[in-house]
Amino acid sequence: MRRTIICIIAALFCPICAFSADIEIFNAAKKLGNPQGKGIMRHEDSIEINSKSRINFNGNWDLTKNLDFEIEAENLSSEHGIDIRIFLFDDYNKNDNPNVPFISARLNPKESKTVTISFPSPCPDKQIAEKMQLMRTDPFGDSDRFKNPKDLSKIKTISVFSAWTAPDPHFKIKRIVAKDTSNRKDPPWYSLKENDFFPFIDKYGQFKFKDWPGKIHSDADIKAAIETEEEDLKAHPSPEGLNKYGGWEKGPKFEATGHFYVKKVNGKWWMIDPSGALFWSHGVVRVTPSSAITPLDGREFYFEGLPAEGSEFAVFYRTKDKLLAPYYTKRGIKKTYDFSAANIYRKYGAKWREKYADSAHRRLRSWGLNTIANSSDESIFMMRRTPYIDRFELKPPEVPALSGAEGPWWPFPDVFSKEFEKSIENNLLARKGQLNDPWCLGFFVDNEIRWGSPTTLAKNTLLSSAESASKKTFSERLKSKYGDISKLNAAWGTAYSSWNDFLAKCEVPKGANENDLLAFNREITENYFKKIRDGIKKFAPNKLYMGCRFAGSNTKLIEIGAKYCDVISYNIYRDELKNFELPKGVDKPVMIGEFHFGSTDRGLFHPSLIYRINQRARAQSYYDYVHSALKNPYVIGTHWHQFSDQATTGRFDGENFQVGFTDVSDKPYPETIEKIREIGYKLYDTRWEK
């Protein structure tokens, strides 16, 4: 009785203690919660999901003190692990912009367990929160792109889904509980006031208020890393049995053309290096000293010890990354600082560029890598010590784009314009030193185009102005088919007064004939790939056309691309490539242009597109991905994105991912390097195995 009275008194004087409790969102056995979404099968004790769609639970919840979500789940796949995520929606975002913690709970194949997804507590100081900008995730776990929900006390929808790491997510959920987090201890920087919190980035570009293994505390730490790594490189100079290109010297030999080419051997696609040896491209994107450039506009107070103009380190206000510099200009960003290059200068001194370049080649060889992939520093790859591949983007006139799901990441070119062909030629001639270089594998052209549906490009053309070469070509095709405009109107349900009126109208008629759209979409696609192929074979006949790095595609698109590309390239962010295959009837080599994994245990705020709980798990995921690629008969290489971490406070678009083989101080992540070597040193034996 005495204990009961004490508890009642405590509840009266401690409202949080009185009212905080676990909140059960869903319990299949109790028939609690009504899940909505595609691909749901209902069982007595669970719901079964065989879809990439979000599963929504609707209601009214105050989750201000319930930010840890326990999910009792089972992965039904025997092939693929899955990563489960949660979205929260309130009255304000209306299911448009969810709060997205890039944290997921992982279930291995056939694994059944209760997993936890923890949402970070909101920043308690509104003045600090309002100053957090241009970061995909900030120190408080909030996102510049998804500053929602605005009010955790008014959550209307909780969505559960499997992230893109598995091609065919298939799992069960039995129960979801939002756990009481009223007594959860937040990190110490949550208690800081504005004057104490800013600046929160130290002079090395690191987060000030957290420590981790390998963090730099002084210039001496940076210099000490040289000796440590030198010992490591001497102990691991290179895998045995390789030639100067990193090809398989001990393996079978084929025609030596003096250039790289592709060949199918014993049912598997390979590259053949200039000397005739088998070659599998094990590489990394963006080998550059300037990976951690970050915008300063409106944010200089974030940073401790920025150098004065005219001082020794002021040069790093002006160092640039050649590929990404135009994106800063386009966004009107006027001032930046290059933390990674500044740290490399601290490390090596006056000849920092030359010493860094030398180090890059030695590291790659030592780590079991053999390719400097696209978007890297030209002064490094043109040393011709490691095979390389380049990428360029075409900048001719563009066609407008549909909005919504069919809209593009990047505008699509007007492929019928004279400027399109001129852009291909100009980009190639700007690379004269590469066009006949034995060390150059070939060229990617463009990146992650949003091709949409099999009619999207044709619809985009209809949105174009009368001056568009594509619009004029579409008009000619339709005029050839229908003759009189009245016949087009009859087929499309339109009321154009003339063919000039067709050109003038910038709209997609609801009744636009599907077959007409499909036919012109195919013609656009054919022209895109064919003209690029023709340009490369004209100016660089010995180089491979490596495709456009698909991030989304459809069967017809791949069939057309395969006619013209020497290699089909994909950026595939998922766990592995065990069951990856091309559409039926398409047999081409495939290059993986990008993949990565990351964590938040080494000071960065955002892990990457695919979260791993720590560096050891991240490293194992690297091994598993490349191993699965080596076992896939189509795949001739994998290129990790990217060589070094992005800036802690984000680049031009806010990306601040922990995706490097090295951190902002140019220090390698030992767990990842260990696993790169483990797969890299047995690369050819693994690929050759039946």
Q: Can you tell me the overall shape? A: globular
Helix segment count? 19
Integer tally of domains: 3
Quaternary = single chain
Number of beta-strand segments: 26
User: Might you state the CATH topology name of the largest domain?
Assistant: TIM Barrel
SS class = alpha+beta
- Taken as a percent bin, the fraction of beta residues is 15-25%
The CATH homologous superfamily of the largest domain:
Glycosidases
Query: What does the main sheet amount to?
Result: 6 strands, antiparallel
In the CATH hierarchy, what is the architecture of the largest domain at level 2?
Answer: Alpha-Beta Barrel
| Rg calc | 27 Å
Sequence stretches where pLDDT stays below 50 over 5 or more residues: 1-18, 404-408
- Residues in helix, %: 25-40%
Q: How is the topology of this model organized?
A:
Layout: H1 2-13, H2 15-19, E1 23-27, E2 40-42, E3 47-49, E4 55-61, E5 68-75, E6 82-90, E7 105-107, E8 112-118, H3 126-131, E9 155-162, E10 171-179, H4 194-197, H5 219-235, E11 248-253, E12 261-265, E13 268-272, E14 277-279, E15 281-284, E16 293-295, H6 325-330, E17 336-338, H7 339-348, H8 352-367, E18 371-372, H9 378-381, E19 388-392, E20 398-399, E21 412-413, H10 418-429, E22 440-445, H11 456-462, H12 469-482, H13 485-492, H14 499-504, H15 514-539, E23 544-545, H16 555-564, E24 568-571, E25 590-594, H17 615-631, E26 635-640, H18 670-680, H19 683-688
Parallel strand pairs: 15-18, 15-26, 19-22, 22-23, 24-25, 25-26
Antiparallel strand pairs: 1-10, 2-3, 3-10, 4-9, 5-8, 5-10, 6-7, 6-9, 11-14, 12-13, 13-14, 16-17, 20-21
Helix pairs in contact: 5-7, 7-8, 10-15, 11-15, 15-16, 17-18
